[in-house]
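Work package 3, deliverable 3.1, input record:
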Amino acid sequence: MKKHNFSAGPSILPEIAYQNAAKAILDFNGTGLSILSISHRTKDFEDVLASAQSLMRELLNIPENYHIYFVGGGASTQFFHIPANFLATKAGYVNTGVWTKKAIKEAKYYGQVEILATSEDRNFCYIPKGFEIPADLDYLYICTNNTIYGTQYKEDIDSPVPLIADMSSDILSRPIDVSKYALIYGGAQKNLAPAGVSFVIVRDDMLTKVVRELPTMMNVNTHAENNSMFNTPPVFPIFVMNETLKWIKSIGGVEAMYKINVEKAQILYDEIERNTLFRATVDKADRSLMNICFVMAEGKEDLAADFLKFATERGMVGIKGHRLVGGFRASCYNALPKESVEALVACMQEFEQLHK
Amino acid sequence: MKKHNFSAGPSILPEIAYQNAAKAILDFNGTGLSILSISHRTKDFEDVLASAQSLMRELLNIPENYHIYFVGGGASTQFFHIPANFLATKAGYVNTGVWTKKAIKEAKYYGQVEILATSEDRNFCYIPKGFEIPADLDYLYICTNNTIYGTQYKEDIDSPVPLIADMSSDILSRPIDVSKYALIYGGAQKNLAPAGVSFVIVRDDMLTKVVRELPTMMNVNTHAENNSMFNTPPVFPIFVMNETLKWIKSIGGVEAMYKINVEKAQILYDEIERNTLFRATVDKADRSLMNICFVMAEGKEDLAADFLKFATERGMVGIKGHRLVGGFRASCYNALPKESVEALVACMQEFEQLHK
């Protein structure tokens, strides 16, 4: 049975990335060696790294005055590296749920945190807007897409202080204006690569603004100066990332990707609105294109387990909602084909017929 | 042409690990999903993680009062995590070259470092022995095998203070008495897995001895308590590690592995001794079974570039020595077949004939 992979992360990658990864494990670039067993100092790997950086720069239109680097440790590592590097006195955080809460917890270890806005009052089902940004903050921190609640910023914020964004789950899914950000980072295991590598895009002036002495691996300058090669980088995840970036370019870049993502999300949100058995959990304006959350309609709650079973039997994978929201979550990352969304919609319609 | 992969790291892994990794990328466990695209919270991956931990425990005979966990970030991250967790006042370090120097640098950020012994006087070509270990140290830190200089501890030190060892490059290559160590860790990209995951084996009493408040990801307890799942672990490197561990078990475990490693190293060191063109760089007693360093014999130095070309043309990969030692380095990790060592020896003999 054909599987439709709606996992929130690690998540679906383009088929060509799987094919090329499997090939490179058996023989990388015709070297007679496995991509798993080559030195990161070889020309072959340096080419992969350079290609990944250059494609990321091209696809996101990253200005010349930004460094791009790749490191291990996950976004959870960046949660504390960011305040360690940049929080001297006070930073502003917008709380949109679990991922920003974790970041806030780590920031408090290094300085004062001002919560500029929060959507906690309604279980994070919207993105707070119109909040003041004090000019004396060291930086403003946001998470542009929350995988758990299915919310997403639709605009790049204008900030009078350096804007730092966790884009783990929507990087390269939509055009952004990188020049509005001081630093963008994320775990790559959603739209880019398998688990094990994070990307950091940092404006050069930030590299001179590190506020304290730090262990070598924690300092942003270490990775920027050494071009991701201070220590052995996660070679294979970077290889797969490069394959994914090539694929995004091949389908027309981020603008084209965005159009496809809008179309996929529209199909699913439309069905959620139409179908009498389901309802969306997020305010319309803030619904994520990546993580589409829905629950059973009022009075139909007892059908939830049945629908999960019904959909699972039809090849849907990873659609159980996070326990903090309940219901269902269909993650529709870049590599998820439109057919998968259509298969899920067909499931929902079939299930509705059974429960008329 | 058949390649012989002597790379110092990332390095050769067993053929069966490549085969199973390539298969799992296309279809993991018959799930219809890629190992690169499954949630780390799935039963299928939890089984892989549990298997890797249990095999490591079995193969190294790790007592019950030790936790085993896997994290990203590389050994370079552990260089500062260890003193951050355990260095309150003063720690002792034995300096055997680059890797301990880096660890010492990070430790100084957190407290006082006493260099108990160093082999710097002869470019780290031996392992210092017979040094005093003051009883008031927070811990004693060593690196059991130095990839760059080709030195290796042959015995587990008896230490009156907690013994912490970086075993990045010789873990599972020889039997060790884990009970003599408070903490053993390493990057896995030599004998275990592709780059992107580190292992930590920590005695439970150490978990109660963390000396300062730390960001969540830095605290050993975070990873021990959450069984490597506080954040998304490096799923694919852990999968490959499990395949490697299964392979070690299949060939008879660490004792069997050690015998093969001794045999391979003996063949190569014997040839280095016999061959009039080459000489070993390390004192006999301290020669590594993993990284075998040699240079041209006195008066033959100008043949070095020729030999590198000669050997490369015959399929030898990664035998150029590190710039700090020069000459050649043949890394003979667990997965390197005896035939590769024999092929290198044949090269050396053929080259000797040409330069009689």
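Chain A has ten helices and 14 strands.
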